[in-house]
Amino acid sequence: TMPDGVQQPWLQLAGDQLSGFGGCNRLMGGFKMDGSSLSFPGVGSTKMFCEGVQPTESAIKQMLGQVDSCKMDGGLLKLMGAGNELAALKAE
Fold first, then answer.
1. Residue 64, pLDDT score
2. What φ, ψ does residue 85 adopt, rounded to 5°?
3. With pLDDT > 70 as the criterion, what percentage of the chain qualifies?
4. Torsions phi, psi for 62 (to 5 deg)
C-alpha cells in the first residue's frame, strides 16, 4: 500500500523495453519474452529517495530480478519466479 497522495507503481512493456514508475523513481530497462518465459535483465531507475516509499520501490525492483515466467489469469498478468506468483498486474 502506498502512502496517501503517492502515485501507484506501474509498468509498461513495449517492444523489448520496460518503462515504469516505482512510487518515487522512473524505472527503465529491457525485457526478454519467449512464450511464457519472461525476464527483466538490467532494470535501472532514477536515484531520488522518497521517505516511506523506498522500501516498496526496492521490493519492486528486487521482484523484477526474480521473474522467470508469466501467465494470464482472468485479465491479470501474473509474474512468476521459481513457480511462485511474485506479482499480479492489471491493465489500465
1. 96
2. -75, 125
3. 99
4. -65, -45
